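Reproducibility note. Readers wishing to regenerate the assembly model reported in the main text can use the exact inputs given here. Chain order matters: entities are listed in the order in which they were concatenated for prediction.
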Amino acid sequence: MSGTDEERRLARVALTWLAEPGTRAVYQLVDRLGPVATLDLLLDGGSPDGQLNGTVAARSAAGDARAVAAEALDRADRLGARLVTPDDDEWPTRVAGLAKLRLPDASRRVDVETAPPLCFWVRGGWPLGEALDRSVAVVGARAATGYGQHVATELGYGLAERDWTVVSGGAFGIDAAAHRGALNAGGVTVAVLACGVDRPYPVGNTALFDRIADTGLLVSEWPPGAEPLRPRFLIRNRVIAAGTVGTVVVEASARSGATQTARRAIYTGRVTMVVPGPVTSAMSVGVHELLREQPKVRLVTGVAHVLEEVGRIGADLAPLARGPQRPADTLDDDARSLLEALPRRGVRGVDALAARAGVDLRTALRKLSLLEELALVVRREDGYALAPPASPKRGTPATTETETPGSL
Amino acid sequence: MSGTDEERRLARVALTWLAEPGTRAVYQLVDRLGPVATLDLLLDGGSPDGQLNGTVAARSAAGDARAVAAEALDRADRLGARLVTPDDDEWPTRVAGLAKLRLPDASRRVDVETAPPLCFWVRGGWPLGEALDRSVAVVGARAATGYGQHVATELGYGLAERDWTVVSGGAFGIDAAAHRGALNAGGVTVAVLACGVDRPYPVGNTALFDRIADTGLLVSEWPPGAEPLRPRFLIRNRVIAAGTVGTVVVEASARSGATQTARRAIYTGRVTMVVPGPVTSAMSVGVHELLREQPKVRLVTGVAHVLEEVGRIGADLAPLARGPQRPADTLDDDARSLLEALPRRGVRGVDALAARAGVDLRTALRKLSLLEELALVVRREDGYALAPPASPKRGTPATTETETPGSL
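Running the prediction on these inputs yields the following structure tokens for the assembly.
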């Protein structure tokens, strides 16, 4: 493949700016020629696809694609986000399944142009691929009922408790409930966004996004600063569907975004599950439609059923690497005991750590400070947690502080 | 076939007393030898089935089977109930499907002995076979929720409104709600009982049973006076399942009677439908289990879905005969107009009848009295209704008054 590593990364970002993610013609050219040659070809107006040439020409009139891409990468660096491409170890390989996705009766652009992503922007400490290896999407209606939110929270909690990453879209309603459930269990949750990871939408979920970035991941195909334009939600949904082992729809009105995610999951061959509800609820019409019309959709009533479905696939996966492996050889017994007393995920208070490690409180505080200096633990408002693993390639430090808008 | 018509009827009743309905060995003998020869054989201890011989001997020690049967027929006559056998025009042919019913993993007697009925006891004016021709069973939990009762009432109403007979078991909860919905629509509803039609169980539904007997049917395999013994409910359930075009389960706890009815419907090849509910409700666990475990079970969310499922079969059925055809040639124009102003099913008030017929109230009252004398209409508490058709064979008069226990 031609070009240096940096040139290839820049080209992928430029291509995503020239044509929306998912554009099949671009993906196929990249697959054949690599990103650098594809970018050259498109900027020369040399695509065999006339419509694509028109799109590229229009975009190019608004700016220089490479300059825009370089600026996006700089901006990401400044705010502690990173670019992840198929060249990176942390690339989530499962999204390649989108290359084969053909939705029946596809007529809208978002239903036809469903090719795999060219790159992801990521904010948060976990390697993206590892976070998605054992992952389940829990999605549903924004205007969720109390029932739906209760069920989504329980699912998020139960999956996280069993070391499954909970993936959703960060929206109000079901999405937020699923993320919160996972966070409450001290688990990993990933919000896949339809806008820049520096300005997650909706603004009303800002506190939630900060918590997710702190212990999980914010992910987007669009560069920092990108706006959440309407069609982007459906483009984004294909990543939620294909990037996970399975998708659970908790509540969905008829022909809603969540049922579209389910269709993408079904036709990518992913385990697709729905939670039924009262037939008197408009928020369950979409899930009942899926159950009636899609023979492969499975009815689930709780986390046990979900695990039963994804477990068949999950059993074949490599066990999830748990936290960072770092040299702790130089530590004394007290410090090592404290390190072992920390939960694999989530936070534990100093009192509880001291009790578990069998050391007095004063010793615990001294040793925890040492561990913090060694970047083996991080201090939280309510205790200590294991430090998230460094991202494997770019070495971005874990984002433990929330950026204020002024710092962008 | 040997014996007179009366001998054959008596033999069927005696056989049902000697062994519980559904006993396969008895059904197969009757199928081969006819009821009279089968009764002779069994009373002689000549069945090839040793266990059956034991049962018959024990029963015979308690009384003479033919005498018991004759007494039951007399009792039925006194209270306006009738016996219906396969020799009668009104026999519901669909129950013959039970001859092929084999439940998987059957170990209990009630799951093994699922042969077709030998006879039915019927109370009410409609011919049984006609009532069941276009029929849907709506069954479910006794401890139903408000949600389940709401859905069952809507289904009962909507099906009756479209001239489908609503069949259920007369129990509290879902059953009662389904019957009531049908009654409110002025439709035909059939309660299949696990006890005598003169003492329908539960007593708390007495007013409901009276309304059903008035415009629909009470049906049982057991003779008048029979008690609702526990195993009889499951024996009865096979008739609800096989005697209808399809069964809808509205709410059901895990491994409940309603899920057993559904299994009988599935394995008799009937359309089997369930209404989902909140996964947080114990009363929906059974229906969700059916949806997860039985690929042929269809999810329905309302009457439109049910009609879609049963309509495929229903479309092939002869149209339901609507009410009696009687000589009205001698009537004057006012009387004929009033007769035409009556609803096909259900009751209409005198004011409304007068308005529809275009006659004054005084004339309406006079002509309606005449029509009542001619047995063309019946007076009800809240107006008038078309008289139910006479039963085709035995000519039992329509039961318009409720028997008091003292009259039995």
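We highlight two features of this model. The domain at 333-386 of chain A is CATH 1.10.10.10 (Arc Repressor Mutant, subunit A). The first helix of chain A runs from residue 5 to 18.
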